[in-house]
Task: structure prediction
Amino acid sequence: MTATFKTLCQLDTALVAKGHHGLTPFWRSTLERFYAHPTARALVARVGRGGAKSHTSAKVGLNETLFGDWKIPPGEVHYWAYVSKTKDEAAQRLVLIASMLTALGFPHDVAGDTITLSDMSRGFKVFACQVGAVSGFRCYGYSADELAKWQGANYSNPAEEVCASLGAMTITHPGARRLLISSPFGEDGLHFDSFERGDNAHQVVAQAASWVANPAGITEEAARAVEQDPKIFAREYEAIADSIVSNAFEREDVLGCYGRRLIGVPQSSSFLAIDASSLRGDAFAWVEGKLTDKGEVSIELANGWDDAQQRGITMNTVVDRLADRCDALGTSIVFGDQRESASLAALFEKRGIELKSYAWSEPSKDAAIVTLRRWMREGKLALCEHDKLKRELLGLRARLLPSGRVHYLSNGVDYASCLITLAHAQNAGELIAGTGNPVLDAIGEMLARGESFQTVVTPMIRAQGWG
Result:
């Protein structure tokens, strides 16, 4: 007997009778086409998140293990290999397969990362996506789970090397089937390149959005509620590959911040944010501005000391100049990142100013840029004209990592870094307008609208019974 689409359907029917989910219409038609192909032994599927990929590949591995016509020498055990980003993720499939074997009544032993069938010299083995891990065993097929998002050293994807090693492990089984099933990541790598080659003598390809691959498990509306960023939604749920390096901000969003008239009333307090340097090479930059009562952010000045301006300048001179700006703005707080924060905090303290610094990390930077992007798209950020700030915002690049996080290529981005620090302050709940005293804040807001001091203060004094 050999593994066929018919045996897969029989297996699926038996598992459904025991309470397991059945193959969806998309997967049933895709696997029928795959098994009917006379020569193709690889299935390359680009499918959105939640699209029943792992569950389906487990059933194919089970079909090949239970019904495949594999010649295994006496004394040896050969395996269906399951490879994922980490062994823990791959091991989750081991739990599922063990549950399916129990439901079907096939006795088996589970030991570590291996399942061995009690009455057959066959089993299942899980591996992490490392070349050194996938060697030393014989396999009659494998599943490469979410291989578009595997990550090795230096953000590289080891899928090509790992799958080459897996191919060598199947060398004694010419009919071994290979499942390369993943949601998309970028427009490069083994999974992308294989999919783009389309159907041929060696492979069958298929593509489906999450709700098409698994209509009972996910809807388009639910996916849109979870992910509202259109680029991420297209990649993760519609299964549309995108470049892994892109602009951090859309050009029209950045340009829309210039000449923008905010609708809120400016608050009485102002802010100042810096991007410090050691005064050697990159700029020491700052931005200043105000918030409005509508949660809008107005950047009214961007300035700093570029490389040529730093000659003969000391950190004391820089702090004195910034402290003078704080006095003019009526603020006693400066926002900054962790660079030079210890020495700067001491210098600012001498002028009665507190330096609030934020240690940037990849997650915090990502969250800050998401905040900036939201300000831009909601029309809540107004920027003063400043050529270098504009160039930096338009040129800031983002590299998507397989983990789903984004690495921003922000080296040498000085003025835009001030805005990123400002967004850190916002996310920390520390970019707060006003003094905290409602009477003083009300006075400040009315004065900001151009009303005279006497007109504003006299009625308040009388209302309080002070005179």
Notes: The chain has a mean pLDDT of 88. The domain at 251-427 is CATH 3.30.420.240 (Nucleotidyltransferase; domain 5). The longest strand covers residues 266-275. The chain has two domains: 5-243, 251-427.
